[in-house]
Each structure stands twice: as structure tokens, then as C-alpha cells.
Amino acid sequence: MEEKLVERLESAVAKLEAISISGFRPAEGGGDAAAAAALDPSIVAFEDLMGEYVGRVSAAAEKIGGQVLDATKVVAEAFLAQKQLLVMVKQTQKPDMAGLAEFLKPLNEVILKANKMTEGRRSDFFNHLKTAADSLSALAWIAFTGKDCGMSMPIAHVEESWQMAEFYNNKILVEYKNKDPNHVEWAKALKELYVPGLRDYVKSHYPLGPIWSVTGKTTVPAPAKVPKSSGPAPPPPPPASLFSSESPQSSSSRPKVGMAAVFQEINTGKPATAGLRKVTDNMKTKNRADRTGIVGAGEKESGASSRSFSKAGPPKLELQVRKWVVENQIGRKNLVIDDCDSKQSVYVFGCKDSVLQIKGKVNNITVDKCTKMGIVFMDVVAACEIVNCNGVEVQCQGSAPTISVDNTSGCQLYLSNDSLEASITTAKSSEINVLVPGAGPDDDWGEHALPQQFVHVYTDGQFVTTPVSHSGG
Q1: What local confidence, expressed as pLDDT, does residue 102 receive?
Q2: pLDDT surpassing 60 at residue 444
Q3: Residue 415 above 70 pLDDT?
Q4: Which 3-state string (H, E, C) describes 13-48?
């Protein structure tokens, strides 16, 4: 019993040192209160949560290593930051919105670090990074201050946040189901960390949000640093973060741009032609000797070559180890991959107005940031993913267990008879149509529009979600 008490006290001392380093210094005479807060049953329960669930995720990540391990370390760092904040809650009065943003700054910085890992060119472990980063928004339950704060209740917030991350977590389970059990173990352990782990913890200790101290210290925003020497004005602040307390700028105070600026200029009463230069006869195209209606062959060739080269980089169609990379193809209708096998994947990035045909079975197909792109493939082992695209057409001539469409506008999916049982997942997408073969060989294709609007009705203690159906007049 005494040994356990000593361990708890040592843990409290270590925690107080970490808080002091992070800039949260206890008030005068508050050391005893901080130590008592660290031994509170809710804090002890959170330590047990970290030891059991975070430890399980970390153990699975150790077997994988690389970027997955780095992302898991950030998750552990975020939970440690939340533990420190829970201790501070017990010795701090409830702050206002500006004070709350300052109070939650350590946690917010870790979440921003996780989001930064998902930026840039996609890696082979993008789904792992995205799952870890999106899941950390569940820790924002601690920012709940009441029904009017604009957030869901803490328990519901944890569940909703994990549902957003689960979209990418399911991709990991599908991709590595028959490839590597370590990745499957990591994905399952991460889910259990939030559901039921964090959800049950919040349900048991903070179902109505954090319980602030009545007599503790107050949290005030950090004053802005004023430079000693007078120099140029500092740059504008970055976009609001997850816990930002600033309200968005009103539309009336924003400078008008585009057509709004044109109408504003018209409404000022000034003559519409004020400031325009007069076009004289020698400036008209028909009277200029240096302009003709004939286009030379050299100009045609230079125009065609410029269209086939993207500003983002040179076009690529090559096999890199086990991944076919198709990048920056512009206006190419005859792209073909015919030497492929089921252990290889295909990654299509930044292509426009092109058509790619994949002859053979591959493991996975990802179409990222493409416009007016056509993809025709035979069979896929894991999934076909369409992400951040606009106006794409994808035709499956064989089988595909999973097709996912994420953040895409305008997508036509053509399924074969062998792929009619495919699981189609959509998120943040619009104008998605699925075409299936007719009953007979000569029948027309049947077109089905996937719903993009939903109605949520509160019935019998829970929300029931149904798609919106439109009927023609």
C-alpha cells in the first residue's frame, strides 16, 4: 500500500515538473493542491486508460516502425497533454473563451503537429497518418463549456470524432487484412483507445464536461510581444485553430471581390465607362498588319507540347518497386499499364483530361487530385479510391470489393456484373452516379444517383438518418 502511494506521489511530482516546463505554473501555495489533483480518482483512471489502451497502440506501432510509429508517438503525446490539462482543470477557475484557447494551447499544438504529418505528397502510410490525426479531435471534448458552446456533449463528441477517423481506419483493415497482421492490430487498438476507451472514461467522470475549480487560479490570454525596434508590420495571423475563440469576420466588413466588387462599383453612381481607354482604328485587330488569321505548324506543335506538360512537374508513368506511379499526365488518352500483378498498386496523381487503362489484377488503385480523368481497370484486390477529384469516370470490368469516394465532385462509376456486390463508401462528395449493366446483353445501362443530402430526425431517444429523395414535377 505504501509503495503504491509513493509511486503516485512520484508521478505527481513528475507531472508538476512537466506543467512547470510547459508554462502553466501553479499559484502561490498551490503545490499541495496540484499534488492532490494528480491523485484524484479521475486522473488515476486516465493514467490507467493511457497505460492500457495507448500502450497497446504503441506496442503495435513498434512492430511496424517508420511513419506509423512517429504518428503513434504524437497520439501518446496528445493524451499526455490532456492528462496535464485535466490536472490543471481541478485547480483553475472556468475561463472565458479567450482564456480557454490559451489554456488548451498545449493540446492544440500537438493536434496541429499530427495534422502537419498528413500534408504534402501522400506516403504509403497516409491512411495511418490520417486516422491518427483525425482521431485526436476527440480530445477536444475538454473544451465543452455548456450547451451553447457550439459543441456536442462530451460523450457524443468523442463518438462523432472517431466516426470521422474510422473512414481511414477501415481502409487500413481492408488493405492489410491478408497482408500484415501488425497493421490490423494497430488499427483495432487505435479504435479501442477511443471506443470504448476514451468514451467510457468521459462517460464515467465527465459526462457534462470538465469540472472547474471554484477557488482556483484564473487563466488569461498571453499578452502579445511588442518588438523593441520599430520595423515593418508583422504578417497577419494564421487561420483559426481547433480551439480558437475568435469569431469569424462578418461579411459586411470583408472587402468585396469578384462580381460583388463590380456591383459595388456600379452602385456608387460613377459612370460605368469612367477610366476606360478609347480604342482607336489602328488598335483594332482587323487593321493590324502584325496579326493574321493563319496559325503556323510550329505554333500548333508548341501549343500541343505545352498542354502535355503540367506546371506541377514532368509527366510520369513508371513502376517504383511495387507501385505504379502515374503523375501529371495532361491530355493523354492512351495511357496503358499492362505488365502488372496482384502485389502491385497504382497511384494516379495530378492528371487531367486523360484516360488510363489497367490490364490485369492489382492490389490497390488510388486516384488523387485529378480532373476529367478516366480509369478503366480489370480487378482490384483491396480497394479503388477516388480522392480530391473533379469530374472523373471509373469503370470496373472485373471485381472490386471496395470503392471509396472522398472529397470529390462529379464521379461516374461503371460496375460490371462481377462487381455489383462492391461496398461503395462516400464522404464529402457530390454528383456521384453508379451505372450497372442491364438485365439483358442488349439492355441499356441502369443509372443510380447516390444521395448527397440526408435528413436527421430525433426519434425515440436517437437520431434517425434517411437520404433525401427528389421527385420530378
Answers
A1: 87
A2: yes
A3: yes
A4: HHHHHHHHHHCCCCCCCCHHHHHHHHCCHHHHHHHH
Please, what is the angle between helix 126-135 and helix 181-192, to 10°? 10
- What lies within 8 Å, CB to CB, of 272 at 6+ separation is 266
Three cell numbers at 67? 511513419
Q: What is the pTM of this model?
A: 0.47
How confident is the model at residue 445, as a pLDDT?
84
Please, which residues have CB within 8 angstroms of residue 242's CB and are 6 or more apart in sequence? 108, 111, 112, 137, 140
263 vs 106: CA distance, rounded Å: 45
Question: Buried b / exposed e across 370-388, counting CB within 10 Å, b at 16+?
Answer: bbbbbbbbbbbbbbbbbbe
* Chain CA centroid to CA 104, Å: 21
Q: How far apart are CA 295 and CA 278, in angstroms?
A: 29
> Which of the four pLDDT bands, split at 50, 70 and 90, describes residue 184?
very high
For residue 261, give the H/E element and its range: helix 259-267
Rounded distance, CA 175 to CA 364, Å?
8
Distance (Å, rounded) from C-alpha 35 to C-alpha 19?
12
CA 319 remoteness from chain centre: 28
Report which of 342, 438, 340, 343 is spatially closest to residue 356, judged by C-alpha positions.
340
Checking DSSP bridges between strand 423-427 and strand 402-406, what pairing results, if any?
A: parallel
Length of the chain: 473
The answer to whether the CB of 189 falls within 8 A of the CB of 169 is: no
What is the chain's Cα-based Rg? Answer: 29
The string of pLDDT tens digits covering residues 371-383 is: 999 999 999 999 9
